[in-house]
């Protein structure tokens, strides 16, 4: 399948010499939710800004649904909706007027029925006559999303869309995102709430210091880099690992009260049964056990630290 976004050899160096992006290659599939993760200053917003035609690249090319974002800017931009991090809209405008105006900016004819549905999906219909300055921060962010959707884009960028909003609104937003994907809209999001990426994304990209260090299907990533840990809570504390266990993925806790065994849950043999038999042979008894799987957040932190 032809990618809906294709980034090739993309670099960006600002006048002061700071290189925000370094030779980025990326393809995003039509209809997927792609989460772009990275620490502050990693290059996430620069990459989004180039794809959306806000910032010019130093080198490289970007195509949005077959349109070059520089050579064919207008056609490419009509395909894209952008919800930026910052709330930037005319605070004296009324909600309905600003959303209607955003649709017209992209050459779309009036469609009251569609705009009404967008506002209702975002719980803004009752606020349509309100001036934006009278709305809460969460409501203003909903207006930004409505503006981005007004011209019916095939690609939607969400740059930290749930920053500073309450839990209820966050859940409503993600329900809306799922609905958009079901209608074929491609979603690219950046977020600091990694649990959201873990729940929502089809694929994960990790960017660090301007370099795209990993792009992988979420479930494949969790399987390849995620590990499970078995914690054995001991009947009696130990001062050291039993003889013969050195060099194995087994650690004794600082207080000596538990043993932690790290294993690959997807391997043919986890080694747990053999471990328990060997511990029993050494007279090590346990009173309780529990397992824990590595989260996407831990994988992300390890990737960036390792970089």
Low-confidence spans: pLDDT under 50, at least 5 residues?
none
| Total of DSSP H or I helical runs spanning 4+ residues | 10
Architecture per CATH nomenclature, i.e. the level-2 architecture of the largest domain: 3-Layer(aba) Sandwich
How many domains in all? 2
For this structure, the quaternary state is single chain
Alpha-beta classification: alpha/beta
Explain how this protein is built.
Strands 6-7-8-3-9-10 form a 6-stranded mixed β-sheet, with helices on both faces. It has a 4-stranded antiparallel β-sheet with strand order 2-1-4-5. A 4-stranded antiparallel β-sheet has the order 12-13-11-14, with no helix packed on it. It has 307 residues and is of the alpha/beta class. The mean pLDDT is 85. β12 and β13 (258-263) form a beta hairpin. The protein is elongated and about 80 Å long. α3 runs parallel beside α5. It has 2 domains: 5-223, Rossmann fold; 227-306, Alpha-Beta Plaits (2-Layer Sandwich), CATH 3.30.70. It starts with a strand and ends with a helix. 33% of the residues lie in helices and 27% in strands. The chain has 10 helices and 14 strands.
